[in-house]
Amino acid sequence: MRIRAVVTIGLAALIALAGCGDGATGRPVAVGSGSTVTGPITVFAAASLTESFTTIGRRFEAAYPGTTVTFNFAGSSALATQINEGAPADVLASAAPKSMAVVVDAGNGAGTPTTFVRNQLVIAVAEGNPRGVAGLADLAEPDLKVALCAQTVPCGAAAGAAIEAAGARVTPVTLEQDVKAALSKLKLGEVDAALVYRTDAKAAAADVDAVEFPESAKAVNDYPIVALKDARNAAGAQAFIAFVLSADSVQVLTEAGFQAP
Amino acid sequence: MRTARVPVPLLVPAVLGLIFLVLPLVGLLARTPWSTLPARLAEPRVVEALRLSLLTSTMATVVCLILGVPLAWMLARASFPGRRLVRALITVPLVLPPVVGGIALLLALGRRGLVGQWLDTTFGITLPFTTAGVVIAEAFVALPFLVISVEGALRGADSRYEEAAATLGSTRWTTFTHVTLPLVAPGIAAGAVLCWARALGEFGATITFAGNYPGITQTMPLAVYQTMESGDLEGAVVLSLILLVVSVAILAGLRDRWLTAP
Description:
Chain A: Keywords: Metal-binding, Molybdenum, Signal. Chain A: It comes from Actinoplanes xinjiangensis. Chain A: This is Molybdate transport system substrate-binding protein. The complex is a heterodimer of chains A (261) and B (262). With 261 residues, chain A is an alpha/beta fold. Chain A folds into two domains: 28-118 and 223-255, Periplasmic binding protein-like II (D-Maltodextrin-Binding Protein, domain 2); 121-219, 3-Layer(aba) Sandwich (D-Maltodextrin-Binding Protein, domain 2), CATH 3.40.190.10. In chain A, 40% of the residues lie in helices and 23% in strands. Chain A contains nine helices and ten strands. Chain A has helices spanning 2-25, 50-63, 76-84, 97-105, 154-166, 179-187, 198-203, 234-245, 247-255, and strands at residues 39-46, 67-74, 91-93, 109-119, 121-126, 146-149, 174-176, 193-197, 208-211, 221-228. Chain A is elongated. Chain A starts with a helix and ends in a 6-residue tail after the last helix. By secondary structure, chain B is mainly α. Chain B has a single domain (45-259), classed as MetI-like (MetI-like fold), CATH 1.10.3720.10. Chain B has 13 helices and no strands. In chain B, helix 3 (44-77) runs parallel beside helix 7, helix 8 runs antiparallel to helix 9 (172-200) and helix 11 packs antiparallel against helix 12. The model of chain B has no long low-confidence stretch (mean pLDDT 89). The chains are: A alpha/beta (261), B mainly alpha (262). The interface between A and B is medium-sized, with 24 and 20 residues.
């Protein structure tokens, strides 16, 4: 037992060393004023970034040994409220400039937000599209249950804009607090369709199909990212943002269905 | 008793405990926008959420009374195998996080749920996203409160009255309606108020099972949450204040039963 434990520790040390080497050579380490990037970094990010940011966070930790990236994924407006009420965060990645403006206008941003990706809505339907939804107009059918995001979160605002652009009349059965909640109601079979981001439909491709519709081009969401004024780890925040803007991360994001800005 | 000196090791934590409970409420009052309060209270969405909350929590209490009083009687008076297990099962929603209750309700009564599927195909009834769904979510969370307090009242009641009624030839049903119920009426009333208050504050099970739509499923706690999320802190404070006033009013009404309890 003891020998095995020693071997395990040795292996772990080797792996850790290998990680260091990789970070020193392969990844974009030269960030900011050369201050060392270490310690915990807290990132508040829109719910629609859950999958891609989790991947990017893992890669960041590998590239910068000694850092740990913690995420708080929620609706963008909730994140903005939390930050303005003093929640400890280093970075905010929002799903809409409007939610970002709430934080920046309150003087809680450090520097100007950078748009790093864009996202578009699709109509998510159950696998195989049993109700034959082809466009926004089909969502007006009275016996078709539709989940939208609440108007206060970006996916809800975008849905409102797209529905208006299409001149459709959609009466949702529920206004969910974020895009993931809307998608869950669809996965559970409680609704027949949900307006969600293309990226969320893609992440749930095993359970849902995505129906593209032309009016979504009228409601494209820009995703801004910014370091926060009260960041406890300012160097870490800058390094993380630079990492998100790097080619590797952009690839992760576009593979998830985002568009480069 | 009252004049006895309170030992310092008890006094200090006791005062801290009191401050801990009261301070957040003071914080709420401190941020209340008193000048715009009347206008805010008259907003249609506030009125709508309050109306829906009062309606659903009252209906949930009625449901709980109809189901809960007999259940409490069974636990207190009847002896049957597995009674302990039944009591344990009844208290589960008490300790279950309400959001878990909401998921469980979806899986049981949702459109694809165990029973919900059958309700949908046979009667065309779907409960999620309806006001009835809100009542069910609230009743699910509040029922244990009623059952436990009524059972306690039944156990505390003198069973000799019931025995006397039985020796005089009264049936068990007549005994229940004419002797037991009047005997434990105060206990039932207290349980009902507690149950109503719990239903009024219900959030997790409601938003998970019934969704969130103004006028249909958006009760006060959901409206508070959404207002807070939208960055309208002032609006959230106003809505919270209404719930606080209602809660304090209930507490005042219960003063005799709970605050001077033996």
